Every structure is written in structure tokens, then in C-alpha cells.
Amino acid sequence: MPPLALLAPRYWPTWLMMVPFTVLPYMPWRLQYACGRRIGRLARRLARRRRAITEANLAQCFPELSAAERERLLHEHFDALGIGLIETALCWWAPDWRLRSRMETEGFEHLQQAKETGRGIILLTGHFTPLELGGRLLNMHHPIIAVYRPHENPVIDYLMRKRRNANIERAIGNRDLRSMLISLRRKATVWFAPDQAYFGPRGVQAPFFGIPAPTNTASSASSVNASSRQNSRMCGSTNALARP
Questions:
Q1: How far apart are CA 134 and CA 87, in angstroms?
Q2: How far apart are CA 25 and CA 88, in angstroms?
Q3: pLDDT of residue 2
Q4: Contact at 8 Å (CB) between 83 and 36?
Q5: Residue 205: is it exposed, middle or buried by C-beta count within 10 angstroms (0-12/13-18/19+)?
Q6: Do residues 113 and 160 make contact, with C-beta atoms less than 8 angstroms apart?
Q7: Which residues in the chain come in under a pLDDT of 50?
Q8: Residue 21 in contact with residue 164, Cβ under 8 Å?
Q9: Global pTM?
């Protein structure tokens, strides 16, 4: 049962918005992904600020591409964002058996080798749209503790913490450094997926597509403080869940 404060009338629209996502994981795969693409295309038209940011990023990272090629990438990006929402619903509410039937994995031998060192593991991944679902699938093979950034909407933050704690070993807020270090010293696998520009005192300017970008050094600092091992991996989706 959510806290009574989250049942106030001002949060009712958020709760109502969540209802379709609890049903979507039980619909046919193709219908789920078609809905995701529709959501993404709607966002591309309505979220003008996000679209402008995406256009600027594509222009800086891929100056060699033509305007038409970058426009194609823009469309694919927003399609992936919409599908990412559907995959988040799958992560939070789909039963294990439904996900296992469409799951393919590779590279777990690297994680096993890191585990055999007898130290905690920092698992680094890119912050991509199938990340939420990737964490759920990863935890089916190897227990993980995920580091996350609290959401500004209290209802979404409540659901995010509740569903993540139900589907993985544990979720830790990104400011709870003490819990991260304790987990690493207990030889746990702590998953970082940084995606935000960081302008704090411990940040560095690292090249990204040849452009200096503010970058957080928390993962490397945690590795030193906890005597843990870092393991960098990617999780991705080829829309395999949508295939018949």
C-alpha cells in the first residue's frame, strides 16, 4: 500500500497514467511494441525542447552525416524512447516466465571470472532505453544491486523503488555512497549506469565523440575505496521481444 500522501488528488493523474502499463505486459508482443513506437512518435511531435536537444546532439556528434540521415536517427531515437517505456512496464509487471521465453544472453563468463576474484564488482553499462528491462533479466542470472537517481515525481519514484526492489537484489539511491561501499565490501555486484552531465567538484572533462563532456568519477573512486573490480558491459535490445 502506498503512503497516504501519495493518494492525494493531485497525484491521481499519475496513478491513472500507470494503469495501462500494468496491462500492456500481457498483450501480444507486436502490439506492445507498436504502442511503444506510437508513444515515441507522439513525444517527437510534442516534446519540442527534447527534440531540439536531440537535434543539437546529433549535429555535434555526427557532423559527417547529411541532414536527412540525422533526421532518420532522430526518428529512430524517439521510437526507441517509446519502446523503452513499454520495456519498463515489462520489467515492472511481467512475470518471469514471459520474459525468459524471449531472452538471449551472452558474456556471463566475464562476470563469473570477476566474481571468482573474491572481491566486490562494479558493473558499468551505458544508459540506454532497454536498461530497466536489462537489469531485471541480468538479475535472473546474477544478483545485482542497482544505483539509481530518485525521480522528481513522488508516485513514479515510489513505484520505481518498489518494483526494482521486487525484481533485483536491492536498489540504492545515487547519493547513498555509504551503502554502495558496504555492498562492495560484502562482495556484491553494484550496477552503475551513469547518464547525467556532472558539474560537481569531483567531475572531469572527458571526450565524448571528440567533444569535452562533464563526467562523474564516482565509479572509479568507489572502486578504489572498496577494493573492488570494475567490469564494463552493455545491455541492448534488438526488439527481439516483439518477434512472433
A1: 9
A2: 10
A3: 80
A4: yes
A5: exposed
A6: no
A7: 232-244
A8: no
A9: 0.80
